[in-house]
Amino acid sequence: MSVRAALVQMRSGRDMARNVADAVAMIREAQARGAQFVTTPEMTNIIEPDRGRLVALARKESEDDSVAAFAALAKELGLWLNIGSLALKGEGEKLRNRSLLFTPDGAIAARYDKIHMFDVDLPTGETIRESRAFEGGSIACLADLPWMRLGLTICYDMRFAGLYRMLAQKGASLLTVPSAFTVPTGMAHWHVLLRARAIETGSFVLAAAQGGRHDSRRETYGHSLAVGPWGEILAEGEVDPVVLMVDIDPRQSELARRRIPALSHDRPFSLLAGFA
């Protein structure tokens, strides 16, 4: 019951229609190369630093042309398709950073709104306040694929190990981490964090990424990464757009968890307040 998966690395810009067309072309390439499951990066439909313009362009999920296009594509190609995330309008004034999983018949099997917001002042002088435009989610998400159980996360979530432990303890052995990582943090932490999440949970980790200098002048780290449950790197991109292929054998996750059964070794403990 192994599965051939593909990671689509993109360089999304400010033109939604062009971004969707680019994604569609790369997903078609992945399917032609045998992919049964495809995952794309965070913000597949747009990278737009101007909050006002982003809010004006975004649509609700039920009204968004890209959602309809990806649903039709999944049905046409007969594959499981994880659109890493889209900028979509929520119920209030803020947007949702939402990951969608489409079935081979074009239905939406799962949706996940990014829980953790990336609010940071970088050493480069760049300030990012994701919470100004996006409302964080509050519900973790699992979905059953024909081969294994999938846990959906997005980018900054990867710094919160408890989320991944919970997903794995609920049966996930494949974790997606679509991302648009900054270059400074990517150089320092990208590989370490993704390999750690794989090792801690005995899971496969697929992190499709944005890469390069975007037309908004933002620069992202790229290096889409597929990691095995023992922490080994199975496939890695560089900076330019690319389709990466990887074969996943769910038995490898079972083996890793038997070798290091840490998911079943939780123990209650208390915190000592004060110091001797």
The CATH topology label is Nitrilase/N-carbamoyl-D-aminoacid amidohydrolase
Termini separation: 55 Å
Domain count: the total is 1
Q: Biggest sheet, strands in spatial order?
A: 5-4-3-2-1-16
The share of residues in extended strands comes to 25-35%
Description:
This protein has 276 residues and is α/β, with parallel strands linked by helices. It contains seven helices and 16 strands. β3 and β4 (95-102) form a beta hairpin. The longest helix has 19 residues, at 183-201. The mean pLDDT is 96.
Summarize the structure.
With 276 residues, the protein is of the alpha/beta class. It is built from 7 helices and 16 strands.
Provide tags for this entry.
alpha/beta, 6-stranded mixed β-sheet, 7 helices
Task: Describe the protein's topology.
Layout: E1 3-9, H1 16-32, E2 37-39, H2 51-57, H3 65-77, E3 80-89, E4 95-102, E5 108-113, E6 119-121, E7 127-129, H4 130-133, E8 141-144, E9 149-152, H5 161-169, E10 172-176, H6 183-201, E11 204-207, E12 211-213, E13 219-221, E14 225-227, E15 233-236, E16 242-248, H7 250-259
